[in-house]
């Protein structure tokens, strides 16, 4: 499944993963904001950007969402492990992608370069 994430808009990072948590799409904004080239991110696990101390919780939530996808508005300031090893928070929105029958197809995350949602669930 391809989601249109092309373009040179570096103000938003768009990351798409399949139901197993493998990155399938990575736009120019993700390259600019997180520091990983698309060629180094696509095909890798989301562990690439999930901070180590949050991985267990991340995968628990990810697998729950893939097993029972619901339409929710999940916007928060989300920590990302960047290529330089630093953990930075970005205003992000997480969406489960599903078909008309409710079968999960993967997940989509969209991050803004600047600003805050005011919601910081991992602090």
From TrEMBL:
Domain of life: Bacteria
One Pfam family, short name: PAS_4
Residue span, PAS domain: 1-69
InterPro entries per UniProt: PAS, PAS-like_dom_sf, PAS_4
Identification of the protein by name: PAS domain S-box protein
């Amino acid at each position: 499944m391809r989601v249109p994430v092309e373009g040179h808009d570096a103000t938003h990072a768009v990351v798409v993963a399949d139901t197993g948590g493998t990155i399938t799409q990575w736009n120019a904004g993700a390259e600019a904001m997180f520091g990983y080239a698309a060629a180094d991110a696509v095909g890798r696990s989301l562990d690439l950007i999930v901070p180590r101390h949050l991985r267990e919780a991340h995968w628990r939530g990810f697998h729950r969402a893939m097993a029972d996808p619901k339409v929710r508005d999940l916007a928060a300031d989300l920590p990302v492990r960047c290529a330089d090893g630093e953990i930075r928070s970005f205003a992000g929105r997480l969406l489960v992608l599903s078909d008309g029958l409710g079968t999960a197809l993967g997940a989509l995350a969209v991050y803004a370069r600047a600003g805050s949602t005011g919601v910081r669930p991992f602090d």
